[in-house]
Structures are given as structure tokens and as C-alpha cells.
Amino acid sequence: MSTYRAQNNVPPFIPLSQYLLHRLKQLGVTTIFGLPGEHNAPLINQIYQIPSMTWCGNTNELNASYAADGYARIKRLSCLITTFGVGEMSVLNGVAGAFAEHVPILHIVGMPPSSAQLKQLLLNHTLGKTDYDVFHRLASDICCYSAVIKDAETAMAIIEKCIGMCYSKQRPVYCGIPVNFINAMTSSHLLDIPLEVDNFVDDPSVDNLVELTLEKLYAAKHPLIMADGCAIRHDCLSELRQLATVTGFPLCATPMGKTAFDEQDRRYAGVYTGTISSPQVREVVDFSDFILVVGAMAIDFATSSFHFYYKTKNIIFLFDTFAKVTIGSKMYPDLRLKYVMQTLVCRLDRSRINYIHEAIPESIQFRVLPDPNTPLRQEWLWARMAQWFQEGDVIITETGTSGLGINQIKLPSNAKIISQPLWGSVGFSVGACLGVLIAVREEIMNGCRQPGSRTILFVGDGALQLTAQELSTIIRFHLTPFIFVVNNKGNSVDRLLNRKKLGTSPNYYDLQQWDNLALIPTFGATEYDTTRVSKVGQLDQLLNDLNFAQNSILKMVEILLPSMDGPQVLMDIIPESI
Fold first, then answer.
1. How big is the CA angle at 259 (ends 253 and 260), to the nearest 5 degrees?
2. Could you name the Gene Ontology cellular component terms for this entry (predicted)?
3. Annotated binding site for Mg(2+): which residue ranges?
4. Which of 21, 100, 229, 270 has a CA positioned 20 to 30 A from the CA of residue 261?
5. Is residue 119 very low, low, confident or very high in pLDDT (cuts 50, 70, 90)?
6. Residues that constitute the known binding site
7. pTM of the model
8. Torsion sign (Cα): 131, 136, 139, 140
9. Interacting residues of 29 by C-beta distance below 8 A, sequence separation 6+
């Protein structure tokens, strides 16, 4: 069998930077995000020497971090390159969000040469001091591992560990490379040995946890399997869906676990958003006598608009690296979620299950189209979008009404949702859309995804003003998303919640209105379609157009909505008048 080096014409000795890039390529990363700078330009130059690898220069570092996040959510790993100091500091928000939501971004920082650091020279991009490790220390708290290369002898081992940790832990890793090591020659022989990224240890505590879980599964009369974010992030969907099929239990998901299950499955109740869940989902959760939360991100999740609450205390939370059993407060540390799920599915005995299948309450659907001249409202918008989505769609939603609205509906089979419900950085979705678009295009080219797969972005008008520059990168790479700008004249969720708390809606949530549709030609697009809708009939006609449904060119639709309107789950907790 031909080796990797033979297939890719890799010589016996290569620059250290090329070794790093080949390792990333072996794990499916073929586009690198970031911005060039004084200390990382030699590394970026090497990207052009690796066949099928592409440099995606972004408009700013924060947007680059969002793009790397979106890319990694599709391909399970991404790489972000910044320069020392000013560049790396600009990505902290994006990397922190990736850490919070278990997204693996390998953050490579081009640093000043070792000689300058040893001589303690005062260089630009410093804090006016000669402490060259200060930015590394700042970044280390939002990474699962961080390192700076200090010498050529250990450089390759550090790169191996950084990539391996990032992939296996599914969280960001920081790797600082002084510019003098970027082209240091190193042996390429290890490229023929697959990087060790999955070490599942047969731990006795796994046996105890699995046996206890099976006991509860077998005994439960009204069980529920709930999918949370780590089930998706840590590659457990196959085991999760197998567990669902064998048991036949009712299913639901948290906002971070949405699309972990096939949402067209009749056993799937919907998204559990705690106190603002739909009545149908609350009924299923509240009636359960045992809940297995697979891929838990938190035991109790709270936002400004809702918090989780479980009536039953008989719950097992399976996190990425540990488990918690609520009755008896048992903890099982140092576990790997995928190994636990593999073991659980392997030992499950279907004949011992006592659950008797019950019908899952149907969600309320709009059956009659309102009058075509009716102004658009959030409640009808999301019900109508649910009918337009297709199998295989990748849907990116912004923090705010879009994120809440998408949780109310069931998506087609094999659809995927990209959102940031835990970290909630406003503006994330535009940069993430770029990363998703590139990752989806690569999967289509590699035969891993059907041609014509659509990427659909929902972004609020306020969020768009934070990261609109990255639309120009989407245009530069000839990408063809559907972009729905939800224009409610500012930040409606905050307006509504403040009206509930304060009895008024402060005007500091208002924004200068942009001509959003003009952004596309302003950024240089030549093939595109833009339209603005404000009435039910206008949107319905657009979504019924078969040509519009094709992703042949970039399409932007501005949806005009009332400023004090939101998805029904949000409006239900807001007093009608104050």
C-alpha cells in the first residue's frame, strides 16, 4: 500500500510548518483561516506549497475565529492563524466561544524570533514590556492545551500533541511558533504513521456506570432520551441514534443538541428550552420518570429568557469526560463519552425494556395561510420556513429571535443546525456561515455530501452590523448562501426582556438602519439576487418559487418585522401591556 508521503510527493525532510500543514490535511483540514502579519507570513506562504490546501484571508481576526468555528462544526477540526499580540488578542472572544461550546480550533500564533525574545528586545505588538509570554498566558484559560515552541528538538512533538489534543478533546488549542522555527527542516517520516487522536481506555468505572444506566433504562415506564451538544461535538451520533432505535424511547434535544436526532421521527418531541418550552415538549419531559441526557453541556442551563427545570430527579447526565447520577449524587470522573455510548449500546438487551410505546404529542402547525396582505410576524415566519427547508440543509442562526424561532420547528432529516446558544456572541453567525460554506463545498468535492446542499443563514439586522465585512469574503470565494436578514430595527429580544423587567423599552437597543440589500453589490458581487419582504403573501410567493430554492447564486432576503415581536415562546413570557 502506498504511503501518505509517496501519494503526496513529500520529501524526507520538510519545513516544520509543512509538517504541521500535512498533519492537518490528514485530518481533513484543507482551508486555513486568519490574517497575515509580521510574524506569521512565512507560515502562510507554506500553505501554498501543500497541494489542495487553501488560505482564506479574512477581513478581521474576530471574524476569522467565527469562520474557523463554523468550519470545525462541519469537519471536526479547523485551523486559525494569527500574528503575535494584536492579532491573537482580537480572536479571544471567538476562541472563548469555541471553548464554551466544545469546538476544536487549532490556533497557531506566529511569534517574534527566539533571539529577540532571549535578548528581551522591545518590539512592536507588545505591551511596552519584554514579557513575550503574556498573551500565551491570557489564552491558556480558554484552551484545553497550550504550548509555545522553544527549540527545534521538541517542536515536532509539540505539534503532534497540539493537534491530537485539539481533535480528541474537541476544544481549542493554542500553539505559538517563533518565526525562526517556521522553516526549520525536520524529518517527514512520521507522516506515514496516523496521528493518535482516539484513545479509549477500558475503565472499570465505565462498567459500573453502564450497568446502572441499563438498570434505569430497563425499569423506566416513562423514559426519555435527551440529546445535548456534546453528543454532536464528540462524534456520538451513531451510538445515540442506535440507542434511540433499539429502545424506542421518546426523544428530545436541548438547543445545543438540536438535529442530533432525526426530527421527522415520530418519537421526537422537539427542543427542550426549560421554562419556555412548547406545551408538547414540556408534557413529555415533565411526565418522564427517567431521563438520560447524552452529551450534557450543563446540569442546569439558564439564560436571560429561560432556565432548565426537571420534575423528575431520576436523571443521568453523560458529559464529555464524566457522568453524574442525580439520585445519590454519584459522580464518574475521567470518562470518554463515545466509549461510554459504545459500551452502552453493545450491552443493551432489548428484551428487558419495560417501556410501552406511547404517542408523542403533535406540535401545533399553521394549517391555513393568513391573508396575503397580513404583515409578517415571527410566529408565522418560522412555521412557513419549516415547510421550505430541505433534507441536508445546513442552517446557521444568530443569537436572538432567530435562535429561539428555529427551536420551535422540526427540521427535515439530515439537516444540521449551527448556533451558539451557550456563548451567545452577537454577530457570530456571519463569520460562521463563511466557514460552513467552505466546509460544505469541500465535502461536496470529496463526495461526502450531495451536490446542491444548501447553506442558509438567519441573522438579525443588529448582529449583521457587527460582522458584515465577512460578506465580502463570502463573495470573494464565489460562495452561494441564502441569507435571511431578520430586520426588527435593533435587538428585539433585549427590548422585550427589558420591557418585562423595567416596564419600558430603552432606546439604546435601537440602531441606525442600513440599506442591507445594498451591501451585496457594495462588496463587489456581480451575480446575486436580493429582495425585501414585509407581508405574508410576499414571503409565501418567494418560498414557492422553485428557482429561488436553488443555490446557484448568492441570495439575500430582508424580512421586515415589528420591533416588539418575537417567537411565540418568548412572547408568552412578556406581558401584553405594562
1. 70
2. cytosol; nucleus
3. 461, 488, 490
4. 100
5. confident
6. 461, 488, 490
7. 0.94
8. negative
9. 75, 77, 78, 79
